[in-house]
Design goal:
The chain has about 100 residues and is mainly α. The chain has a domain of about 55 residues. Helices cover about 50% and strands about 0% of the residues. The protein has 6 helices and no strands.
Length: about 100
């Protein structure tokens, strides 16, 4: 039995197909709550030098990122504080949004 011969055109789409083929749009409703929560936003702040040193040391020895350590610590801090779950008034929230 002879081996089947393949032409490269059969195996690899043409550049036109790759570039011009419309992409399937994901409807906004299909974005899950988990996907929204996984978005990371950069921010900056200041810490006392000793606190930053301890944070870096802990991060190193626990093999965790500083971001993960801060996330767990902030969530634990905000737990049981009802103010953390109250929405900010629209006028004030607009001032805090990043462009």
């Amino acid at each position: 039995m002879a081996k089947a011969k393949f032409d490269l055109d059969q195996l690899i789409p043409s550049p036109d197909e790759l570039l011009l083929k419309p992409k399937a749009a994901v409807p906004a409703a299909a974005v899950t709550q988990e996907a929204r929560e996984s978005v990371l936003i950069k921010f900056s702040n200041q810490l006392p030098a000793e606190t930053l040193q301890r944070l870096q040391q802990y991060s190193f020895w626990s093999h965790e990122t500083i971001g993960d350590v801060l996330d767990v610590a902030i969530i634990a801090y905000l737990e049981g504080r009802p103010e953390a779950d109250r929405a900010i008034p629209a006028k004030q929230a607009a001032r805090r949004r990043r462009g």
